[in-house]
Every structure is written in C-alpha cells, then in structure tokens.
Q: What sequence folds into this?
C-alpha cells in the first residue's frame, strides 16, 4: 500500500455539498488510492467507510461489495460481501474498516484491478455518488525477476559521426509481461544540448517472452560544436521502476566524444610599430577561423635586425595561450620589452615569428612580422645665455647654443631667427631677439630658447621748445605746448619731461603738470615734434590776461636739450559780463529838472575795472531845449562788481513853460571793452511829462440853433496860458429830448507781454450814429499785475468824432512795464465810463488784460566737478541762479550718465547734467557736473588651494588665485613669488613678484592662473615641492589665507628594470635558484621596489588551494539538478589539475538524487585565484510530498600540488516540489483541519496539482490569500448547489460541520494537528468551486 496519501474526513465533508440535500446522514467509502503489491503470500487490503454528514439516531447497516475488472474474484482476490454497522449517536467522521484478501499467482504479470462499492437499505441514509465506489489496483507479483545492464561500460564516437549506438541487454531471467527500463544522461565534460542530445527517463520496452541476451538499443545524437577542444564524455544511467526488473552493473556507461575540429591562426599583422618611450611592443596572434574548446599554446621568438639586445629583450619560444572558448578573431597577445638606450638615433627593427606543434592548430601567414622601434630619446638645447650685448661699432654679436642634456648618435639641425623688438632695458641700448627652433622631434628646446641681443647706442638727439611763447584762450580750454627734434634720428623711444610753474596764472587758471613725459617714438627725426595740451580752466571771471611758465628736462643720455628750454604760456580771458539799462523806459516831470538812468551788470563777475559810455539822442524831445545832452559820458564798474551791481547817471531836463505833449529822447549804451557784452535793454527811452497847464472855457453859457440850420456852433477859448502843442478839450452832450448812442469795449479780454510793452484797448459803437463828438473814459484796476507791471490810467479819454457810427472804434495803448522779474502771467482790469448823456454804455464795459512774462533766469551748476566717498552713500550736487530774479516756481531736471573711469585708479566717475523744459530758464555753463566717487571698497584674494600638483612630464605647475569677495571696477595686480623647498632651481624656474592681473569686471570666484615652469631633470626621485606666495600693495586688495601654497612636483622619470637573463638554471640539490634584476637605464635618487612572483610551468608550486564556492547549495525536486562549484582560493595554474567530488547520503538518498563517486572537476592551465569549475548533480522528483532533504558532497584530490581548504565538504538541500490541495485553511475551532486528497480518488477531472497552503509556517506558505467572509460554492454540473456560511457569525454551523475531526489510519490510529483558537475560516476572492480545482496550478483555490 502507498502510505504517503491519506484522507481526512473534512475533504468529504466539504464535498457533501455537491450531493442531494434530502437525507439525514451521508455515508461513503473514504476516497483514497487503494493499491497493493501481489506477494508470494496472501495480503489483506483495508477498505475505509466513513460517516460523512450528520449524527445517527439509530443503528445503520451498510454493505460492501466487489465487482471484477481484469482482476478475477477468487483468482486474484477473495470476493466478500461485508456488512458494517454504524452505532446510534455516531457523528460525522466516524470510520469503519473492511478487509479484502489479495491472492498470489507467483507470476510476473501486469497490474490488475477490480471495484469495491457500497450499498445500504437503511432509511435516511444517502451514499453520495462520489463516495459510492473506489477502484482497487493489484500490482504485478514479485516472484520472478529479470536482470538488465548496458552491453558495455564505455562507448566512443567522433563528433562528426553524428550519434552513438547504446544497447541494454537481459543478462538473466524470463519476462512473462512487458517491462520498461529508463535511460537518463548525466553531463560530464560533455554538456547536454551542446555536445549531445540528452535523455531523461527515455523508455526502452522489453516484451513478454524476452529472456537472456535480448537487447534494446538507442541512438544518442552527438553534436559537432565546431570547436577545437579535448575529448569529452558524458554518462548514461540505466534505471527502472518495475519491481520485477533488476538493474545490475554496468548500470552506467561512459560515452567519449572524440574531437574532430581544428583552428587556423596567424599573427595579427606583418609589421608592428613602437617607440623607446613606450617601453614595449604588443604582438598578437589571432584565430582566423574555428573555435577552441580547450586551451592551446603558440610560441613566439625574435630575430635581431638593426635592433639588437641593447634595443629590446629577446624572446625564445614564449607561449601565447588561447584558452577554451576562444573563437574567430579572438587574439592572444604578449609584450616584448623595448629598451631605451638613452641615445638619440634612427629607427631600428627586429623580427618576431610564431611556431606550434599542436595538431589542433594550423598556422598561416603572416607567421612573422617586423617590429620597428622609433627612437624616443632627445637632446635638450638652449642658448648659453639669455642675454648678450654688442657695441654698434663692433659690427656683430656672438650668440652661442649648447646641448644641455642627452647624447647624439646622428646629425641634427637647429635654426636661428631674429625678431625686432621694442627697446627693452637701459635707455641707451636697442634690442633684438634671436630664437632657436627645431624641426627634428629628437631636439627639445629648453629655456633660454631666446636670446636678447642688446646694441649699445652711441648717438644722441637735440630737443627744445618749438617757441618761447605759447598763447591760449580760456574758451579753447587748453594750451598746446610743443617740443621738437632739432637734430638727430631716433632708433628708440625717448621721453622728455614737461613741468609747469605758476605766474599770474595759478591753479584756478590751468591744471599744473609735473614731469609729464612727452614721447618721441622710434623713427622720429629732425624737425619732428610732439605736443601736450595743458588744460586751461575757464574760471568764469572777467579778468586780465594771465600767464604761467613751462620747462623741459631729460635724464636720458641720448638727449641734449637746447634753448628755449623754458616757455611762457599766455591765457587770454574769454569771460565777459553782460550790462544793460535797468529799464527800457524812464519817465520824469519837467518840473523835476533831471532824469536818473541806471545801468546794471546782468551776469558775470568783474575782477578788474571796466567802463561803459552813455550818449543821448533826440526823439520828440530836443537837446538843449528839453534836456541837456550827454555824449559818451563814462560810467565805471569796479573790481569785484558782479551780477546785480548798478551804476546810475543823471541827465538834466529843461522846463519850457509851454503846455505841450510829453516828449522823449533816447539814451544809448556803448563800450570798447571786450570783457563787456551789452544786452537788452542797451537803449532806454526817457519820457519828459509836461508839467505846464492852461485854462479853457466855453465862449458862452448858451448857444442857439435850428433844425433847419442843421447844427449848433459851440466854441471853447483859452482863458490863460500858452500852447506848445495841440490840446483837446471834449464836449459831451446830455440828453434832453435828444437820443443817445450805445458804446462798449470791443473785447472782454486782452493779451499782451512784457516784451511787447503795451496793450491796445478799443471802445466800439454798438448802435447809433454820432452827430457830434463824444468821449468815454478808460480806467485801470490792479489785479495780480500792479503799477510795477503797467502804467495805471484813470479816466483816460477815448473820443469818437461826429459821424462815427455802428462798429466804429476808438483805441489807445496802455503801457506794459518789463519788471525784469521772471514770474507768472499777471493780469489787471480795464473799464469804461462816460458822463455824456448822449452815450449809453453796454457790455462789455470791463475787460481783463493778461501780461505774459518775457523775462528769464540763467541757471548753472555751482561747480563743474565734485567728489564723494562711496561709504557716504550720496553726493551733493548744487545748482544756482546766475542771473535774473524768480517770483514763481520753476523746475530744472537732473540726469546722470556713466562715463569711463577718469583720474586716479581708485575713483569712478559719472556725469550729472541739467535740462529745463521751462522757457524762462536758460542754462549756462557749467551745464554738466562730473561726480567722482572715491572708492572705499576692496576685494579679497587668496590662492584657490593650499596645495597645487604638477608633474615633470607636463612641464609646468598651474598656480591659481581667485577673488573670494568683491567685484572689480578696475584692474588690479597680485604679485606671485616662489621659495625653494625640496624643489630647487634644477626642478623649476623661480618667479619673483610676477604680476597676476584681474581685469575690470571680474567678480567673486573669478580666478587667474600662472604656469610656473617645471623642469624635467631626467632623474627618478621622490616628489619635490616648493612654496609660492602672493603679495599686493594695492589699497583696494586684502589678502586672505591661503596666501602661501605648496606646489608638489610629481616625478615623471623612470628607470627601466629587467632580469639579467631570460633563463636561469639550477640543480635540485642546490636547494635554491638565484634570480638577478638590474637597472637597464635611468638614474635613481630614491629607493624603489620591484616584486617577484612565480607561476607554475612543468614545475608545480605547492601553494594552490582549492575549495567549494559555498558550504551549502540549494535546489528543488522541480529544478531537477543541483549546481556544485569548486574554486581556486590561491595560486595560479601552469598545468591542468583534477579535483574529485563524491556524494554522501543524508536524509536524501538515491531515490532523491543520483549519487556520484570521484566525479572529476578539471582546472585548465592558466586558471588563477577565484576561477571556478561547476558540475550538476541530478535531483529526482520522488512524487512524494515530504520535508526538505539533504545530502553531502566531499572534495578530494590526489595531486600533490593541490591543497584543499574549507569548505571542502558542502551540503545540498532539496526542497520538496510535490503537494496536494488545501480545502480549508483555519476554522474558529481549536483544530486546524487539513484536507489532502489524491488526484485519482476524485470523480472530477483534475488537470493539475495545487499547493498546500497553511499559515502555520510550513514550506508552502506562498500560495494564496484568503479574505474574511468569503464563501464556498459547488458548481459541479448536474448537482444542486448551496452556499455554506463559513463566517464567524454562524458558530453552530461550523461546529456541526467540523467536529473534532480525526483520520483513522489504519482503523484506530489518529492524525490530528492543532493550531490557534479564534481564527476565521477564510477563502480567496468570491465564488471558488470544485471545478476550479483543475485550474489551481495558476491560482484560485476551490
């Protein structure tokens, strides 16, 4: 009986939902596989019947019956109808047994079967269809055996034959039924699918009647892998599962696959190139076609050409290894050492060729190649001195070149070139550069690569001012002062220094110069001149001509000064004052006797006396009659007078005692002084107002007329006085019975300006016609304009004459006064009145007169330049009114413009300019002001690192500094200096106060660098160092750490070292061998180590250690094999070695894996530390669900060169891949009920197997997840379905369905498993079914 399958009643209890619902109890045969082996004696088979559902309230009888299959009752088994009684109160799970006797016929035969089924006549008992019957199998008997084995323990086949014929034979016995044996292959050095077609339980059938010497054969395909390798083998195992077939030795056979492939090989090229500096040449052999399945060697040797043993290390039969797996185009290379002989020479060559005695290898062209060695040596060449001098008179200069380092074994050329340069060094010497170049790559030029040749000059030039007096004007702004070459020609630049000395002109008149260089550039000759503009300042003051003195000096021995060496610079004043009358009009009465006329300086300052002249000219007033004339009467302004200063003169006025009109004359202003500009008003009109009067009256107190007469004659007469002019008296009518005319002003507003000088006001007849003269009277009334703005009138008469009619006008002018003040528009009011009864006034009888201002002020900056400190945060710029008077608000506008830095290095400048949109503002110089911002900021500078690294091979050390904080508005210089450390002048070129420049605009983190030249001294030495530091005398710079830095120079030189000989021999009896190493080239100024290692050849070292790669390996029945690997722990192989693996049973035995004994693992030549070799041990699936099993593998070796180290024993764990199906997971009951069933026992067809899943930690807890409240549903076709509530809410139902369940195995022993209390029975996602069991391999449990 198979004891690995059991049934717990819960399985059947679940399945009862698939049957009819109407019965009280259900009883059935326990559905497990019933199998039994036929033996020589009779055997009893137990049949289990169980109460599936319900509790019995009476005793129930059931009958067990048999039905023949190909097993016949009373021949193969005893027929027995057995009655079993279930007692009252029996509950679900109660199980009973019945036994059937199996008979033996003592023959080897096939399996037979019959059926056992159950019936019952008891009421209330249902036997479900799935539990009504079970099949029983009787396996073949064991009284007759046959022995089988391979016909040979070894077979051999060539790769290209395609297959090997393997046979199995019966060595003893007679077969009365068919029997199968099985062949399985096991990899050795040959691998399945790569070298052969594998067998896995390949079946060979022996038929009934076969006996000794009967054979069965199989052809096993072998593959030609087209790889050149060694012979390979694999093993074929003979097994059977038939208990009547015995497998005897040889039960394994080894099949050897002989190699039939080869590879072709050549050098990769026919010529190789290298150089002495490379130190080696790499020579490669290449597989042209074919693939290697084993390691092979080809051997390289050299033959001298022009290159000999001093140029390279010769080789003889040097092995080039191609390891297994190499294929077409794969290469194997080695380096031939090239020796640098330190001599500059031509290219040399030698030959390399390959040989081989391996039959798996064919050599083809090219098998030899030429190796060319390009010379890498060089000589260093330089000038013997960086500077030489020669006298012009000598006619030549000698420059010498020397070889500084190296040895020359051939001719080499260098080339000299000259370059003109600007004068350098002392003032009397001219220079040119001589440089050396080389087209020969073996020549390296080192400093000094240029030589400065100084030609000492013996000539001179004569220099003087071009004149003894230079004239300038303040308005031009500068005085151009020139010097010239009187004799001589310049071959270099010279400087003549110009200085100034105050005369009457001082620092307010010009900008002094002190030792300003005037440069004559090279090439200038006799009469050539150079000039300098001395800035002349316009002090805005009217003054006399001033002067200062300039002189020239020179300390250049190539210069002689000639007279004049001093010159006078005259500055003509270009400033002026503006002068005019204070008013364009002046009035006086005859009775006053004079009129005062005043003249005023409008703009400017006077620092000397100046005269203007006043003259009169008749107008209506006649000189000597109405006034006393003046002709060029002098009016003097004094030193110190300025804008606003007034001087006055009185002119006599004569009274003629005659009543006449006001008379006027003009007063003119003239000057002969160029420092005075006359401005308007430069003429003023003087009005003499008459102060005489006469008396007038009508001639009668009444006059008479008639309408027929048409008029009335009215007469007036002079009662007293004399007239000197016509006068008017006015007659007006007053209405009586006569009517009037209507009169008004002709406008309600009038506009004028101060510059116009008057406003015309008119009265107009609106209606009516005058038959006589009539007058209206005009009067003024101040508004914002007062009597300083216009001449008031009071009842000024405007007359209309007889005949005037509608729209006729009568006008007069009101004088507007220019008060010389800049102000807003002012106004006053005029109105008319009349006491004439014949006139009627109508609107407008008043009007507004607006006076537009015509004056202006002049505005300028108080200074053309100001300065401010950045830290103050502001600059004060002042603007002043230069001329004029302001009686209203007025605006000017300031604008700034950036300009390029001017003046001292620490000051930045910008321009401020003024503009005005107001027409009453006139801007005068200075209209711009230069604002200088004195810098108060600084930048912080340091090295970018405290250590800089350089290499001799690079040739320089890049040393960098950076701005840590700040932004530059100008260039600054930081000075770099070096100090020796362990590195001295032979290692680097020292620097002293070398300027590192940051240009304007650089800001935080910007850097600048300098390359300090590093010299390769051709000596192998330790790393040397020197120190660099930075300094600065710039007040705008602060230095921060690191201000010093270390520069490390890594040595780039090397020595070449090799063995003294490529071969060495010794006797074993000596006990040692002496190997010598020597320096081939180079010089060593420090200690240096080389290291010697050995590698096995035909001699074997005793340091090879081998172990397993792990102390444990893991596999599974499903995987079918376990991979075991051994590795080299230490050492390198110069030959193949073998280690052997053997298995030792643990809980796993030969039913779980195929044992191996001394299985060989090959490590090929060339393998080294950590290289590994692996093999597979076949794992057998025993189809039994069980625990993880294990077995051990041990490692051995009989090779004296191999030391085994831990782990040399390892364990292989085989996890079980067999499983059955979970029906329940956990119920709210103190037992975990697991249902296992065999696939064969179910009536439903199962297409696969399912995992066992519990949550108690067993090895298959990776199946499915269950959710609380899920249900189970039966979906079997043709069966009524029912839902069963398995949630915790229906506790009673659970206890009814799942009592304390047991499995009787056999009849009376118990199988139980407990778990936690209080857990829910849960299922996977909705509606699983029995039908779904066939799909459980993919997921959902049913």
A:
């Amino acid at each position: 009986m198979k004891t690995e399958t059991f049934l717990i009643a819960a399985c059947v209890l679940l399945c009862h939902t698939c049957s009819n619902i109407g019965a009280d109890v259900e009883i059935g045969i326990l559905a497990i596989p019933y199998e039994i082996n036929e033996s020589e004696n009779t055997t009893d088979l137990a049949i289990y019947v169980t109460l599936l559902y319900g509790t019995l309230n009476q005793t129930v009888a059931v009958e067990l019956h048999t039905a023949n299959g190909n097993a016949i009752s009373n021949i193969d088994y005893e027929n027995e109808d057995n009655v079993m009684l279930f007692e009252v109160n029996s509950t679900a799970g109660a199980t009973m047994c019945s036994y059937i006797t199996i008979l033996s016929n003592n023959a080897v035969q096939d399996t037979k079967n019959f059926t056992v089924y159950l019936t019952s006549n008891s009421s209330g008992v249902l036997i479900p269809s799935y539990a009504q019957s079970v099949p029983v199998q009787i396996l073949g008997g064991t009284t007759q055996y046959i022995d089988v084995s391979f016909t040979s323990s070894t077979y051999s086949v060539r790769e290209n034959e395609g297959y090997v014929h393997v046979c199995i034979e019966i060595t003893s016995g007679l077969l009365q039924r068919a029997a199968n044996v099985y062949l399985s292959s096991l990899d050795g050095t040959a691998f399945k699918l790569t070298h052969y077609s594998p067998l896995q339980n390949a079946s060979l059938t022996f038929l009934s009647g076969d006996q000794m010497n009967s054979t069965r054969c199989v052809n096993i395909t072998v593959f030609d892998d087209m790889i050149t390798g060694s012979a390979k083998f694999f093993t074929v195992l003979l097994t059977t599962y038939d208990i009547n077939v015995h497998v005897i030795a040889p039960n394994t056979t080894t099949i050897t696959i002989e190699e039939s492939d080869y590879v072709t090989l050549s050098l990769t090229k026919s010529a190789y190139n290298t150089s002495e500096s490379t130190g080696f040449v790499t020579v490669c052999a290449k597989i042209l076609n074919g693939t290697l399945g084993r390691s092979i060697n080809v051997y390289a040797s050299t033959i001298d050409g022009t290159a000999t043993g001093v140029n390279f290390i010769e080789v003889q039969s040097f092995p080039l290894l191609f390891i297994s797996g190499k294929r077409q185009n794969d290469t194997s290379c080695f380096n031939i050492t090239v020796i640098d002989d330190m001599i500059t020479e031509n290219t040399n060559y030698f030959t390399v060729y390959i040989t081989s005695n391996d039959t798996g290898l064919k050599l083809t062209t090219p098998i030899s190649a030429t190796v060319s060695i390009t010379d890498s040596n060089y000589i260093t060449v330089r000038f013997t001195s960086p500077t030489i001098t020669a006298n012009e008179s000598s006619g030549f200069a000698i420059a010498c070149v020397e070889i500084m380092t190296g040895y020359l074994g051939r001719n080499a050329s260098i080339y000299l070139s000259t370059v003109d340069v600007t004068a350098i060094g002392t003032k009397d010497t001219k220079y040119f550069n001589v440089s050396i170049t080389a087209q020969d790559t073996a020549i390296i030029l080192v400093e000094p690569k240029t030589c400065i040749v100084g030609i000492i000059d013996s000539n001179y030039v004569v220099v003087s001012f071009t004149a003894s007096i230079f004239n300038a004007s303040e308005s031009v702004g500068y005085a151009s002062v020139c010097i010239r070459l009187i004799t001589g020609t310049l071959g270099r630049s010279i400087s003549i220094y110009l200085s100034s000395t105050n005369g009457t002109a001082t620092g307010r008149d010009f900008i002094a110069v002190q030792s300003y260089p005037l440069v004559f550039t090279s090439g200038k000759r006799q009469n050539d001149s150079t000039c300098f503009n001395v800035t002349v300042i316009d002090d805005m003051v009217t003054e006399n001509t001033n002067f200062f003195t300039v002189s020239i000096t020179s300390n250049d021995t190539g210069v002689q000064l000639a007279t004049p060496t001093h010159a006078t610079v005259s500055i003509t004043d270009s400033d002026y004052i503006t002068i005019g009358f204070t008013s364009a009009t002046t009035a006086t009465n005859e009775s006053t006797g004079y009129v005062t006329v005043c003249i005023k300086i409008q703009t400017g300052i006077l620092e000397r006396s100046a005269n203007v002249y006043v003259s009169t000219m008749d107008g209506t007033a006649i000189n000597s009659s109405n006034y006393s004339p003046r002709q060029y009467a002098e009016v003097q302004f004094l030193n110190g007078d300025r804008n606003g200063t007034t001087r006055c003169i009185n002119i006599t006025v004569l009274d003629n005692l005659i009543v006449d009109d006001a008379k006027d004359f003009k007063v003119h202003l003239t000057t002969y002084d160029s420092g005075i500009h006359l401005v308007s008003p430069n003429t003023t009109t003087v009005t003499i107002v008459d102060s005489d009067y006469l008396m007038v009256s009508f001639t009668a107190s009444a006059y008479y007329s008639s309408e027929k007469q048409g008029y009335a004659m009215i007469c007036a007469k002079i009662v007293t006085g004399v007239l000197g002019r016509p006068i008017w008296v006015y007659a007006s009518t007053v209405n009586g019975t006569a009517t009037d005319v209507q009169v008004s002003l002709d406008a309600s507003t009038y506009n004028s300006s101060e510059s116009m000088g008057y406003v015309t006001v008119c009265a107009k007849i609106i209606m009516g016609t005058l038959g006589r003269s009539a007058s209206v009277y005009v009067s003024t009334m101040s508004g914002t304009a007062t009597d300083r703005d216009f001449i008031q009138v009071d009842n000024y008469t405007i007359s209309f004459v007889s005949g005037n009619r509608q729209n006729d006008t009568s006008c007069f002018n009101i004088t507007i006064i220019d008060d010389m003040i800049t102000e807003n528009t002012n106004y006053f009011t005029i109105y008319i009145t009349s006491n004439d009864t014949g006139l009627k006034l109508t609107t407008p009888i008043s009007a507004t007169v607006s006076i537009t201002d015509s004056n202006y002020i002049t505005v300028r900056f108080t200074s053309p330049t100001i300065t401010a400190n950045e830290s103050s945060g502001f600059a004060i710029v002042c603007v002043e009114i230069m001329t004029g008077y302001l009686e209203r608000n007025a605006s000017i506008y300031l604008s700034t413009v950036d300009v390029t830095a001017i003046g001292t290095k620490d000051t930045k400048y910008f321009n401020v300019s003024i503009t005005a949109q107001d027409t009453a503002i006139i801007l005068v110089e200075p209209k711009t002001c230069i604002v200088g911002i004195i810098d108060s900021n600084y930048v912080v500078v340091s090295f970018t690192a405290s250590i800089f690294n350089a290499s001799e091979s690079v040739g320089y050390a890049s040393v960098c500094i950076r701005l840590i904080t700040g932004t530059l508005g100008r260039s600054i210089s930081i000075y770099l200096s070096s100090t020796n450390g362990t590195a001295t002048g032979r290692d680097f070129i020292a620097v002293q106060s070398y300027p590192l420049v940051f240009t304007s605009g650089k800001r935080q983190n910007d850097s600048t660098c300098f390359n300090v030249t590093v010299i390769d001294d051709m000596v192998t030495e330790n790393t040397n160092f020197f120190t660099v530091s930075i300094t600065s005398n710039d007040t705008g710079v602060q230095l921060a750490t690191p201000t010093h830095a270390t520069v490390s120079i890594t040595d780039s030189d090397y020595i070449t070292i090799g063995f003294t000989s490529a071969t060495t021999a010794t006797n074993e009896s000596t006990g040692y061998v002496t190997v010598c190493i020597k320096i081939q080239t180079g010089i060593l100024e420090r200690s240096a180590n080389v290291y010697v290692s050995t590698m096995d050849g035909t001699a074997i070292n005793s340091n090879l250690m081998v172990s397993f790669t792990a102390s444990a390996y893991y596999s599974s029945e499903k995987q079918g094999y376990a991979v075991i690997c051994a590795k080299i722990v230490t050492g390198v192989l110069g030959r193949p070695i073998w280690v052997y693996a053997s298995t030792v049973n643990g809980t796993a035995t030969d039913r779980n894996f195929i044992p191996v004994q001394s299985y060989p693992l090959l490590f090929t030549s060339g393998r080294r530390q950590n290289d590994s070799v692996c093999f597979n041990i076949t794992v057998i699936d025993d189809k039994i669900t069980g625990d993880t099993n294990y077995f051990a593998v041990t490692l051995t070796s009989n090779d004296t060169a191999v030391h085994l180290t831990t782990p040399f024993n390892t364990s292989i764990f085989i996890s079980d891949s067999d499983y059955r199906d979970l029906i329940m997971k956990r119920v709210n009951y103190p037992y975990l009920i697991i249902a296992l069933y065999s696939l064969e026992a179910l009536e439903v067809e199962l297409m696969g197997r399912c995992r066992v899943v519990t949550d108690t930690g067993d090895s298959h807890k990776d199946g499915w997840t269950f959710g609380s409240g899920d249900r189970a549903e039966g979906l079997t076709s043709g069966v009524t379905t029912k839902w069963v509530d398995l949630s915790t809410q229906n506790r009673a139902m659970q206890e009814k369905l799942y009592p304390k369940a047991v499995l009787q195995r056999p009849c009376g022993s118990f199988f139980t498993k407990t778990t936690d209390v209080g857990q829910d029975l849960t299922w996977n996602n909705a509606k699983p079914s029995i039908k779904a069991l066939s799909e459980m391999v993919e997921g959902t449990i049913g």
